[in-house]
Description:
single chain; mainly beta; Pnp Oxidase, Chain A; seven-stranded antiparallel β-sheet; 3 helices; NADH-dep_flavin_reductase; Split_barrel_FMN-bd; FMN binding; Flavin_Rdtase-like_dom; NADH-FMN oxidoreductase RutF, flavin reductase (DIM6/NTAB) family
Amino acid sequence: MADNGLAAGGRRPVARLPNPPRLSPQASLREVMGQFATGVTVLTAGGRDGHGMTANAFTSVSLEPPLVLCCVAKAARIHEVIMTARSFAVSILGGDQRDVAKHFADWRRPRGRAQFDAIGWFRGPRTGTPLVADALAWLECELVKVYAGGDHSIFVGEVLDARRGEGGPALVFHGGEFQTTGGAPSLVHDRKAIS
Length: 195
C-alpha cells in the first residue's frame, strides 16, 4: 500500500509544533520599539527661534493630498517652534550622517539658529526652514493638523516641496544603535539619542 501521508482512518497526523518561543520578561515600550528599525531624520522648524532635532517618529500618511506626520514630545524645544511657525521640514539622513544625528540629539547644543553652525545646511525654497546639506531627501511641510498623542503631539503636514539627493545608504536606528542600510552597526550606541 502506498504511503500517502494519511494516518489510519484517513486522517492526517497532527503535526508536531515546535517549542513555543522563549519570551523575555515584561519589557518597556521603549525596549520593544527599539526592535523596530526606523529611518533617521532631522526635523527642523523656522521662524526667529529656528530649531532642529533628531527624530525617527516620522512617516508618510497620504499621497493625495501629500501628507506626512511626525510625533514630537510636548516638552521638546521644537514643539513650540513648529506651533508658532505653522510649518516644519524633514531631512532624511544618509548612512554617513551619524554625527549630524548625534548633534541634533544632544540637548547641550546651542539654541536657535546657532545650532546649525556646526553642520552644512541651506534654506528650504518654500519656507526658508533650515535643511541638512547632503541628506538623502528633503520635505518642506505646512502644518495642517495637530492631534494629541499622550505626552507627544502628532503633527500632520502637507508637503509643499519634496526633493531627492544623490542617493546612497540610509541611516537607520535599531536596538539603540545608529546603523546604515547594507552595513554593519556604527560605533554609536546611545539609547537616548532618538526622541
